[in-house]
Amino acid sequence: MAGNKKRPIITFNSPVVLGFVIACFAVTLTGIISGGRITRALFMTYRSSLMNPLTYLRFFTYVLGHSGWSHFVGNACYLLLLGPMLEEKYGARMLIQIIAITAFATAILNYIFFPSVALCGASGIVFAFIILASFTGFKDGEIPLTFILVAVIYIGQQVIEGITVKDDVSNMAHIMGGVVGAILGYMLNVRRKS
Question: Which residue ranges form the domains of the chain, and what is each CATH number?
Answer without folding.
Answer: 15-193 (1.20.1540.10)
